[in-house]
Amino acid sequence: MFIDKVKIYVKAGDGGDGMVAFRREAYVPDGGPAGGDGGRGGDIVFEVDEGLRTLMDFRYQKHFKAKRGEDGRSKNQHGKNAEDLVIYVPPGTTLRDSDTGDVIADLTTHKERFTAVRGGRGGKGNTRFTTPANPAPEIKENGEPALERNIELELKLLADAGLVGFPSVGKSTLLSVVSAAKPKIGDYHFTTIQPNLGVVESDNGSSFVMADLPGLIEGAHEGTGLGQQFLRHIERTRVIIHVVDMSGFEGRDPFEDYETINEELRQYNMRLLERPQIIAANKMDMPGADENLAAFREKVPDDVSVYPVSSLTKGGLTNMLRETAEFLEQTPEFPLYEEQEESKVVYRYQKPESPFTITRADDGAFEISGAEIEKIFKMTDMSKDDSINRFSRKMRQMGIDEALRKRGAEDGDTVRLLDFEFEFIE
Hints:
This protein is of the alpha/beta class. It has three domains: 5-155, Spo0b-associated Gtp-binding Protein, Chain: A (Distorted Sandwich), CATH 2.70.210.12; 161-330, P-loop containing nucleotide triphosphate hydrolases (Rossmann fold); 357-424, GTP-binding protein OBG, C-terminal domain (GMP Synthetase, Chain A, domain 3), CATH 3.30.300. It has eight helices and 18 strands. A six-stranded mixed β-sheet has the order 10-11-9-12-13-14, sandwiched between helices. The longest helix has 15 residues, at 254-268. The chain is elongated, with a radius of gyration of 32 Å. Mean pLDDT is 82; it is low at 183-193, 218-228 and 337-346.
């Protein structure tokens, strides 16, 4: 089964907790804090493996979590950093943020890597909190909670030349003749339900990868037929080979077929028509094909290359493949996504997110929320008085105390942060 689009959930590893420890060694004067820091959590890393061809592995595993860092230890020993979780993907995989739709990476070459989510840093041990006023602190940090992300993987085949055309015009047969590929071939529409790749060698010694893409029909850019499911694979091809059935066996006009498919390519992505296009006038061994070809040549532009070929007799294929190879040598890779010129990039000021917000719950409690304050809370060890006092000072420095007073908080009112409740005291 060919899987070319899948959504997964990834979460990096949390940082390890710091430690509260003290030196108590016989005959060693001046003991003191000796708690080590926690280790860093593992990153989520995507790496290209050229041995993969589909996203089939993600059909069964869609949740990936990296390991957390090791906790700090006594004698100022830091916890071990966790290993990164490497997720292998085939070349041609595009990563999108499922929540925003933004492209975050385009992985095309073997061993190429991209870090999608960073692991949390390790919490500090009590050695880090020594001051002249408090030379033996019982303060330590918990590890930083790591981020999580929903990512959409989309595979676009890395083919040099792509075969496009209506169903049953002979694309699969042509690929099977010019390469060692063995696609399914049948005399009915949509025989090809998944893309096929084959390596083609021209008579001048050059070789390239050709893709046989499922047949397109009118309305494909809107999802009709197999539609957008496979149109995306044409985006990476540098040369388009437009296969047209010259026999007119199914009662369609070859030129109308040609214009319909080009319109679908234009509607899907206007830049597709910038690619060199070669017309393979197929099924020339059939009766009436010569007359149809003559009428076809009168209507197409003079600068468009038309090659009469027959996949059945293999006639005309050598010249067509030679020109395809020449076009590939002259045509650079097209950028997958439009790149704005620096002069056209507009920078807009974005108001920084508030470190906290205060709301009133149905039970009358004041609820505090916000990414920054929640992160500080999760990294605070609430079992130690020194840590709680430090957290209180941070809240005061952030202006939470004053904000609560403005919202009408009085002595003894309940304040809630995540699942932790405490009393407001003046």
